[in-house]
Amino acid sequence: MSKQLRINRSLVLSLALISLAAAMVACMIDIGGPDPPGSAIPIEEDSAEQVRQTWQSAIQSAALEGQVRVILNERQLTGFLAERFESSQNPLLSDPQVYLRQGAIQIYGIVQRAMLSGSILISVRPVVTEQGDIHLDVSEASIGPVPAPAALRDTISALLTEAFTGSVGTLATGIRITALVIADGEMAIVGELR
Q: In the chain, at which residue ranges do the beta strands (DSSP E only) sit?
């Protein structure tokens, strides 16, 4: 019986160690990262559609007035970005948050690859070119304790560019941007028909 008890203990201990090892492998390793620059922004279901409608409304008004005025807020852009990432099969970023503060667009979210997970913060400064286009300059980007990879920075820059200049924005509609201001959770874009 003593030998049987040792075999059972050994078997139980082995199974416990295997279970512990499996649990450790299944868990994500959080590498940390920057904190969000503000409180969480709730995602509204129709935010992406609001962005499209805001542009379309501004364009219709411009036909009468000759000037385009668009105001986008953090909730709209957060929802727009969330929809774009959700439609991707392997999104680079989850739980995106877009903050419009101090002249910059700050994007915060979670990046998960393999067994690693970390927060990311990207700061983008929009610049109006002489031609009246918007250029998005990624001024800072960090994921966990290291700088963000160029591919992630480029993807987020492309998604934001689409929001401002894509299928419903300035490039598609022939608008020349004359001013762009970011402050207090909103971005104001003023332009004229080309």
A: 29-32, 67-73, 94-101, 104-113, 116-128, 134-143, 146-147, 175-183, 186-193
Cα 149–Cα 32–Cα 151 angle in degrees, nearest 5: 10
Distance of CA 67 to the CA centre of its chain: 30
* Interacting residues of 48 by C-beta distance below 8 A, sequence separation 6+: 79, 80, 83, 84
Among 76, 95, 81, smallest CA distance to 155 is for: 81
Question: Phi, psi at residue 127, to the nearest 5°?
Answer: -125, 135
Tell which wins on pLDDT, 123 or 16: 123
pLDDT digits (tens, 9 = 90+) for 117-157: 889 898 988 888 888 888 887 888 887 777 877 777 777 77
Cβ-count burial 112-136 (b if 16+ within 10 Å, e if not): eeeeebbbbbbbbebebeeeebbeb
Which are the contacts of 101, defined by CB distance < 8 A and separation ≥ 6? 37, 38, 182, 183, 184, 185
Region 41-64 average pLDDT = 84
Rounded Cα distance, 127 and 141, in Å: 17
Q: Side chain identity at 193, as an amino acid letter?
A: L
Q: Can you tell me the distance from the alpha carbon of 97 to that of 84, in angstroms, rounded to the nearest whole number? A: 13
